[in-house]
Specification:
Organism: Dendrobium catenatum
Catalytic activity: gibberellin A1 + 2-oxoglutarate + O2 = gibberellin A8 + succinate + CO2
Bound molecules: gibberellin A4
Number of domains: 1
Strand order of the largest sheet: 1-2-3-11-8-13-6-5-4
CATH architecture: Sandwich
Structural class: alpha+beta
EC number: 1.14.11.13
Distance between the termini: 60 Å
Radius of gyration: 21 Å
CATH class: Mainly Beta
Order of helices and strands: HEEHEHHEEHHEEEEEEHEEEEH
Pfam family, one: 2OG-FeII_Oxy
Number of strands: 15
Largest sheet: 9 strands, mixed
CATH superfamily: B-lactam Antibiotic, Isopenicillin N Synthase, Chain
GO molecular function, one term: metal ion binding
Shape: globular
C-alpha cells in the first residue's frame, strides 16, 4: 500500500469559495439572458435571485433606434452650458452636472426626464428619438417582467408588468455622460467616482451604454466587479421595489460607475416605477404558508419621497424593513 505523506502543490493552495453556481449562464461574473432562448424565463429568475443583475442578449431591438438616441445625446452634451441649462434643472427633471440628488457629487453630467412627458425644451429630433426609444424600452421592460412572472410561476402573466403599463406609472429616462477624467487611474485603486454606489429605488432599470467601461456591480460577497461594456446588449437591474414585491427573493443590486481616464462613457437608463399611489408589498402568490412580509407597508410615493432625501450609499430599503 502506498501512503502519501506530502501534499501535492494543488492541495496546498488556499481554497477559494466559488461565489456562483456552476450551472448558471455567465459571462465572467455577469449572468447572461438570451431573450430568444426557451430557457429565458428560468435564466431571468436565476439571475435576479443570485445578483439582481443580468446582461440581455438577442433582445431584437434595432441598433438604428439606439444609435439615433445616442447621436442626439452626444449632440446635446456637446452644446454650450447655457443651452444645456435651458432644459431646466435636474431637480426634479432636466440637466444636471456634478451634483446627484441632494447630497452627492460625481464626475458626470446628465439629463433626467419623465418618460410620459418629454421635455419640450429639447430639439424636435431629440424628442422624437426619445419618444421612440422610451416606448420600445418600456415594452422590453414589460416583456422581462412577464418572463419573471412566468419563471416564478405567477398568474396572471402581467402581474408585474401592469405596474409599468398604467397611465400614471412613474417612468423615467436618464442620459448620463461621464467625460474622460485623466486623473482616474482604475488600476491603482484611485478611481474618480462617476456615480457613487447605490441601488435603484424602482422596479426595474434597463441600461444601455457605449463601449466605454466604468460600470461595476457588487457581488453577494461584497466584491466589486467591472461589467465589461457591450453596446449591442442591455443590462438589467432589479430595483428596491422588485425586491419588496418578491419579499427579498430577487435582490436589488448595488452598482456604481467609475470615471474612465481616456474615453467618454454615455449611458441611457430607463427606470420603471409604479404609479405613485401604488402599494408596494410582497405578492401574496409568492408567499409560502406562514411567511411574513420583510417590509412594512408603503406606497411608491412614500418610498420615493424618502429615497430622494437619502444619500446614494444609504440603505434605503433598510428604513422600511420590519424590526
Ligand atoms: C438612482 C436611480 C435613478 O438614477 C434616480 C436617482 C436619483 C437622482 O439622481 O436624483 C437618486 C438615486 C436614484 C437614489 C437615491 C436618491 C435619488 C439620487 C439620490 C441620492 C433618478 C432615482 O430614481 O433614484
Amino acid at each position: 500500500m502506498v501512503v502519501i505523506t506530502k501534499l501535492s502543490a494543488v492541495e496546498q493552495l488556499p481554497i477559494t469559495k466559488l461565489h456562483r453556481p456552476v450551472s448558471g449562464n455567465f459571462a465572467g461574473d455577469v449572468p447572461l439572458v438570451d431573450l430568444t432562448s426557451p430557457a429565458a424565463a428560468a435564466q431571468v429568475v436565476a439571475a435576479c435571485e443570485e445578483l439582481g443583475f443580468f446582461k440581455l442578449t438577442n433582445h431584437g431591438i434595432s441598433f438604428e433606434l439606439i444609435d439615433r438616441l445616442e447621436c442626439e445625446a452626444v449632440k446635446f452634451f456637446s452644446l454650450p452650458i447655457w443651452k444645456k441649462d435651458a432644459a431646466g434643472s435636474a431637480a426634479p427633471f432636466g440637466y444636471g452636472s456634478r451634483k446627484i440628488g441632494t447630497w452627492d457629487f460625481g464626475w458626470i453630467e446628465y439629463l433626467l426626464m419623465q418618460a410620459n412627458s418629454i421635455n419640450p425644451a429639447l430639439s424636435s429630433s431629440f424628442r422624437s428619438a426619445l419618444s421612440d426609444y422610451i416606448s420600445t424600452i418600456k415594452n422590453l421592460s414589460c416583456e422581462l417582467l412577464e418572463l419573471m412572472a412566468e419563471g416564478l410561476g405567477l398568474q396572471p402573466r402581467n402581474i408585474l408588468s401592469k405596474l409599468l403599463m398604467d397611465e400614471e406609472s412613474d417612468l423615467m429616462l436618464r442620459l448620463n455622460h461621464y467625460p474622460p477624467c485623466p486623473s482616474s487611474q482604475q488600476r491603482n485603486n484611485i478611481s474618480v467616482t462617476g456615480f457613487g454606489e447605490h441601488t435603484d429605488p424602482q422596479v426595474i432599470s434597463i441600461l444601455r451604454s457605449n463601449n466605454t467601461s466604468g460600470l461595476q456591480i457588487s457581488l453577494r460577497d461584497g466584491r466589486w466587479v467591472p461589467v465589461p461594456p457591450d453596446q449591442s446588449s442591455f443590462f438589467v437591474n432589479v430595483g428596491d421595489s422588485l425586491q419588496v414585491l418578491t419579499n427579498g427573493r430577487f435582490r436589488s443590486v448595488k452598482h456604481r460607475v467609475l470615471a474612465n481616464s481616456v474615453q467618454s462613457r454615455l449611458s441611457m437608463i430607463f427606470f420603471g416605477g409604479p404609479p405613485l399611489k401604488e402599494r408596494v408589498a410582497p405578492l401574496p402568490l409568492l408567499m409560502e404558508e406562514g411567511e411574513e412580509s420583510l417590509y412594512r407597508e408603503f406606497t411608491w410615493c412614500e418610498y420615493k419621497t424618502t429615497a430622494y432625501k437619502t444619500k446614494l450609499v444609504d440603505n434605503r430599503l433598510g428604513l422600511f424593513e420590519k424590526n
